[in-house]
Amino acid sequence: MSKEEKQLTKEEIKRMKMEAKEAEALNDLLKERRDKLANLQAEGKDPFDVYKVERTHTSKQIKDNYEELEDKEVTVAGRLMSKRVHGKAGFSDIHDRYGKIQLYIKINDVGEEKLKEYKTFDIGDFVAITGSVFKTKTGEVTIHIKDFKLLTKSLKPLPEKFHGLKDPDLRYRQRYVDLIINPEVRETFMNRTAIIKAIREFLDNKDFIEVETPILSPIAGGAAAKPFITHHNALDIDMYLRIATELYLKRLIVGGFEKVYEIGKNFRNEGIDIRHNPEFTAIELYEAYADYNDMMEITENMVAYVCEKVLGTTKVVYQGEEIDFTPPWRRITMVDIVKECAGVDFNKIETDEEAREIAKDKNLELKKKLEDCTKGDILNAMFEEFGEETLIQPTFIYDYPVEVSPLTKKKRGNEEFTERFEGFVFGREICNAYSELNDPIVQKERFIQQLRERELGDDEAYMMDDDFINALEIGMPPTGGLGIGIDRLIMFLTDSASIRDVILFPTMKPINQ
To answer: Which residues carry a binding-site annotation for Mg(2+)?
Structure first.
């Protein structure tokens, strides 16, 4: 055994001893807290028998209205997060939804027995406090305790007692602890709520109607993605968790709802990374008598509205880079961005074979066999390979090949392309929109072509939806449609590096697997 191996072994032994010591200390704390609970219950003071608290104010209300509340009696409630009580007096902090407020306790006000009881409280306990409001010499708003009540006994210490959250995944697995310890995490999710509220406000003000469509469906349609499959026992049929809301929302346009939107969960049985979670939140909206140009305007104006409403500015810093969401956003065709970033002009490529030669020269990664790829397939792959990551500032890439846009109208004046755009920020897609295809004959042909793609091995190709074709045959007016990934948008507006940082309970593999 080498000297380095011996040294490593000593370090490992030392680490194991420290972990054992920490585990023993934790077990002692757990026992101590359970003993305290048992004693309280024996005295008829079971904190879990408390049902309701009549609190008069929150921490924020007291701080915001200090002048009118000075020397007045208030009742607050929250989690005890620090306690500095020694001898006959001391200070503590409790946290509620809005922040923290300081407490001051003195034996002359509560008596010896009550002070002794207060000293037994642990960090993490929930308490109700009644007292008068004052400011300390340092100017901190404080409640002078007159009475208190234990509301909930915390039987486990918070992780910070043991050097914080060691496992990076623990923040996601135990989000409840993450929210207690990290105020910036709470702020992120408060902003998430405000962002979604602002989106609704923007659309409601424009006379859109919010609707709900099925999450379980006999067909997974509206996007190119792998679905989750389940089985309905009573009907004895396989069903899919929706991958998009598109086809149901278009049915509502057929039915006469001229402006509709839905904010809800979609599910895709695909990989997990910093940009993807199998369960995610999206908004889709559809407007009759509109096209993809109108959808560009709605997108940039809605995002700017949300930024101003929630953050007070359309300029945000994301991972050290300033992103300016001020309209108008940059607009560039897919052909032009590929020419700009890869040096290949697809306007000069006339055949599929020419495009395949370029794909070979560029060693392009493709979703299907090269011989099965068309010029449009390769143009799209070139953009994904060379163009996406260059799009830092908000940019609309528009006019996508017809091969990758089966639900989209062909471009006016050039039928190789469709009236489709995607919005990109920081090299990441945040939205997708079309001038919606409303010709049932062409739509059926596109679905049939997608079935051929599935036969060639593309398990993300669209399924045939006969009822949707039937709806189009009834008649759908010219329509613009838009989908935005809300989680990704929130990432940018809260400077969150991973999608897991903006989903309260992201999908995680069970620890024992």
So the answer is: 422, 429
